[in-house]
Structure formats: structure tokens, C-alpha cells
Amino acid sequence: KVLGVIPARGGSKGLPRKNLRLAGGKPLLAWTIEAAARSKYLDRFVLSSEDEEIIALARRLGCEVPFVRPAELAGDDVSAVDPVIHALREMPGYDYVVLLQPTTPLRTAEDIDGCIAICYESKAGAVISVVNPQKSPFWMLRKAEDGFLLPLISENFVRLQRQELPEVFLPNGAVYVSEREYLLRNRSFLADRTLGYSMPRERSIDIDTEMDLVFFEMMINRFK
Predict the structure, then answer these.
(1) Hey, is 88 helix, strand or coil?
(2) Which of 99, 127, 191, 196 sits most deeply, having the most CB atoms within 10 A of its CB?
(3) What are phi and psi of 130, to 5 degrees?
(4) Half-sphere exposure for 177 (CA within 13 Å, toward CB)
């Protein structure tokens, strides 16, 4: 049995009330609820929120809200995994849990089901969606105490061509799947038995600022 959890708290510093903001003609939250509703493998999906307006919107969009998130799990310093663990304890009996963050609106039902299928069939502890970053960290620099620039990782990599560098992946925030006990034991989706599910860059946009929202609108209008 697979439980989907959509976390949507009321507070946000980078983009105030972002879960309620219009994005591509509908509330940002709607994109994730609609994708979850089309999933073949989610047995149930619920909203985790402390905000009355967000809860009311989610219910209008067809998402269950069987509990209200405690206020202590809605602060800026709360990790993304804490509301998921809270949901698992509120709703026992599920073998797998899927975290679907509303800030990555362009993931599809196929992405959700692809991650669930990989996790189940491979017997992995977890699967997270990832994207190839535009710039490799092997080329990145850091500033030393004396102000001079040094390679972030190793000078050996800085001199290599892009195709010679190791392949790297960046979590894109779209889909996180975990076997229940694996998540409760590690309190993280990323541990010793986590696999990746690659998504294209154009569907990996993460909306956390006003500029992200503007870029998202441009993409939607361009590809309609």
C-alpha cells in the first residue's frame, strides 16, 4: 500500500503564500494534486498543512485532509521529512510513502509511478527524482582564507573537459519514495540504499522565488 503526502505549509519567506499563488492559470498546489490523482500506484494521497486557507483549497481540488499539521512542524526550520513521518504515524498501515512537494509542479503521474515502480521492483530503500545540473560541481571554486580561489573538490577535475567529468545528479524536489521502515529508521530519503530517477531539466523547475514563478509562466506560455 502506497501513501502520498503533499506538504503545503502557510509560511514562505522566498515567495509568500506560494502554494496559493496562481501559476499557469491555477493555484500552484493544483498541479501536484492533479498529478497525484492520475497516479496508478498511489492508493491514497493527503495534504499536510496547518493553514486553513490551503486546507480549504486542497479539499476543493479533491485532496483529502484527514489531519491538521501541528504548528511546531510548520516553521522555517522544519525539515521536509518531518511532516512525512508525522503523516505516517497519523495513518498507519502503509508500506511505502511518497513525498510530493508543490514547488515542483511539472512532475507527471508517470514520474510518480516510475519512482514507485523502481523502488518496489529493485527492493531499494528509497528512490528520489534527480536532474543533471547545468554546471558540474567538479568545475566549481571556493575562496580560501587568504581570498584566493581554489578548486572546490580537486584541481585534477578543473582541467578536464565536460565529457570527461563524472556524471552528477541533483535532487529536483519532484518525487521522493521510500519504504516505510527505511524512512523511519534513517529520517531521510537519502541513505545507503537510495536510487535515482532521472527527469528532464524542463520539468524540474523548482518554484521558491518570484523569479522562479515568472520563469515558470514563461515556460507554460511558450509550450502551450
Answers:
(1) helix
(2) 127
(3) -135, 165
(4) 26
